[in-house]
Amino acid sequence: MNTPGDRAVIPVGGRRAGSVLAGSALRWSVLLVVVGLWQFVTTTVVAADYEPYFPPPGIVARTLYETWFSGPVSRGFLTPTAIDHLLPSLGRLLGGWALAAVMGIPAGVALGRSKYAIEYVQPVIHFARSIPATTLIPVFIVLFGFSTSMRVSVIIFGVLWPILLNTMDGARKVEPSYLDIARVFGVSRPVRLLLIIVPAAAPRIFAGLRISLSLSIILMVTSELVGATDGIGFFLSNAKKSFQLPEMWSAIVLLGALGYLLNTALLVFERRILGWYHNTEESR
Amino acid sequence: MLEVEELSHAYRRPGPNVLEDVTLIVGDGELVSIVGRSGCGKSTLLRAIAGLIRPTSGQIRLDGTPVDGTPDNLAMVFQDYSRTLLPWLSVRDNVALPLRGNGMCRRARRAAAVEALEAVLLADAARQYPWQLSGGMQQRVSIARALAYQPTLLLMDEPFGSVDAQTREDLEDLLLSVRANRGMTILLVTHDIDESVYVGDRVVVLGHSPGRVIGDLAVDLPRQRDQITTRELPEFIHLRGRVGRLIRATTR
Q1: Are A66 and A46 part of one and the same domain?
Q2: What Rg value do the Cα atoms of chain B yield, rounded?
Q3: In what order do the strands lie in the sheet with B213-218?
Q4: What pLDDT does A2 receive?
Q5: How far out from the chain centre does Cα A149 lie?
Q6: According to the model, what pLDDT value does residue A7 have?
Q7: Domain hosting residue A27, numbered range
Q8: Residues of B (22-51) whose Cβ lies below 8 Å from A
Q9: I need a surface site. Which of A24, A247, A252, B192 has the fewest CB within 10 A?
Q10: Domains of chain B, CATH where assigned
């Protein structure tokens, strides 16, 4: 039985890779132009009376390399500074974000599928998420002292809400016909949860995770500005206080690069997991 | 045997009845077409039998036992295949989904899924994803999923409503051959008069607002049907005329 309507439509992925590459080259060229302009202005226009607060990008780049990434191969090119400050920051950032995900996703699915609990809990959640997590730093200092727990708690408190709210929304708005299928075919509750509800909510869960990841970086740095002995935030404020301005700028650039890389990694992971979603959205 | 007795349903109360006093008996192995204008409550009737909605009044019995919730040996094929196949599962896993939790191991489930896919001539597509297939193929996957469940009663809600005419004829013949091999009871809802006569042993005509049975016609056509010659038979033409007149009389 082969009819004209019977051919399979488009295989996965394919063609897009080229245009994605061209698109990203274009985006990067804008950044290059901006950096080039900065370099030009700081080395030729204002170079006569040296401006220490805005060092030329060339110097920032060299400092970035020397301060963070000129270490031995055996340590992945990380310098002692990077090991002392970058790694603890990264650990707190990813730890806080992962813990928020571990709490927020199951709670969000449970609340999203509940009939009544959501009505009671929603106002509390909306109130709590309106509190800027940074204002709670003193509270967490009282609770945990100047410790890693304090900093991780600040991150968790700040990033839990986008994950929770997005997951709740995704779990609540599962296509009703998917649930009809589950009922007609007598699909058990655990299978329904794992094979129908969670995958159906996955695009929203990932949206929450993406928002949370960029929030995590902000909160990580902020929490390291007070009473810290390590971390990129600590390094940054220390460099500022001791007028090591290229070092300060290198930390700023490092944070930007870190955010970009983490977000890209998450997007790549999401593309793998949610291939079905991106493919069906395009065909609609 | 499926017995529907004086079934009425209103989605809102107080509100108009979508179905009113529908009484219908379907014998084992029968293929009954239910035909009517859109909005006459055909789908509501199927959803009530499937236990997806609780009717306002009346009773449904399957082999003598009243239906409460979804009966175990019932499967359903929906019109909108794109919303009832799970896009994150491969074709094979979609078909195997109903088999989860009945004690079969993964390997046995997959084997059963592939067997069901063979019945709809789609074994080759087992590893693909639903959205990689054409509409007609997706609806065949839907049918395979229902077959894998090995139901004694199969409900089909306008199953061929969203595919092109040629694919539709192929799917009608596929349904007839599957039915000849497996011998289950089938209730097929359609708004297409020709289709209702072509595939059915019996055509039940539903009137419009409220939906009630206004005609119940036996289809006296040879069991072996053919898209061209069957449709040329005088009995076929006569029957489709009768069904058409019944439906036309419902609103004007």
Answers
A1: no
A2: 18
A3: B74-77, B153-157, B185-190, B31-35, B202-206, B213-218
A4: 40
A5: 20
A6: 43
A7: 16-51
A8: 50-51
A9: A24
A10: 2-73+153-248 (3.40.50.300), 85-150 (no CATH)
% of chain B surpassing 90 pLDDT: 39
Tokens describing residue B195:
């289709």
The confidence band for A16, taking pLDDT boundaries of 50, 70 and 90, is low
ipTM for the assembly: 0.88
Query: Which of B70, B135, B137 minimises the CB distance to A184?
Result: B70
Q: pLDDT at position B72, please?
A: 86
Hey, what amino acid is at A80? P
Contacting residues of A for B128, CB less than 8 Å apart:
8
- Tell me the C-alpha distance between A90 and A154, whole Å: 15
pLDDT score, position A8: 44
Residue A235 CB neighbour total at 10 angstroms: 26
Nearest residue of B to residue A275 by CA position?
B88
Roughly what angle, to the nearest 10 degrees, separates helices A57-68 and A16-40? 110
User: Residue A282 domain-assigned?
Assistant: no
**Position A155 in a domain:** yes
